Amino acid sequence: MPRRLCIASVMLLALVAPALAVPLEQPQCVTLESEQKVLEAEGVEGVLAKGPEWAKANLAEADRTKLVHYLDVKELVLFRCPSLRSVVQPDPAAGDTIYGPPELEKSKAAATKPVRQANKKPSKKAARKAAAPVAVPAVPVVEPAAPTP
């Protein structure tokens, strides 16, 4: 019984340990960021965009190891170097409507609806609807009651 408890506690600690990752020091973060930029300059992101199947089929083992290393460095910079994270503000003019005002999203959605082409004939139902006169019911005029003294 104590042995099972010991194994269970070690397993629980192994699961919790990654959640307790502390941020890296500033010099380490700067070094990782510069290494990430060097790898990006070598074209690693372009290779990643082609997908894992392409990489397995067309790259040597050393190049695949470089890709894995790049992903590790990028992960460290993103999650353990909070001082290097830049906050990107949304730009509604550039089409970023994720955080934009609802009015902008509605107007953009209306602008993307397909517009009927001028040379296209309307359907028969639409033609009948347009040709039929619209009956407007008569509205009785009601005089307001005179105020009582």
Give a structural overview.
With 149 residues, the protein is mainly alpha-helical. Helix content is 55%, strand content 0%. It starts with a helix and ends in an 18-residue tail after the last helix. The mean pLDDT is 74.
Q: What is the rounded Rg?
A: 33 Å
Mean pLDDT over the residues: 74
- The share of residues in extended strands comes to under 5%
Distance between the ends: 97 Å
Q: What's the helix-strand series? A: HHHHHHH
Classify the helix fraction into a percent range: 55-70%
Largest sheet: none
Instruction: Find the count of extended strands (DSSP E, 2+ residues).
Output: 0
Characterize this entry briefly:
This protein is mostly helical. The protein has 7 helices and no strands. The N and C termini lie far apart (97 Å).
Quick tags:
149 residues; mainly alpha; single chain
Topology:
Layout: H1 2-16, H2 26-41, H3 44-49, H4 52-58, H5 61-80, H6 102-111, H7 124-131
Helix pairs in contact: 2-5
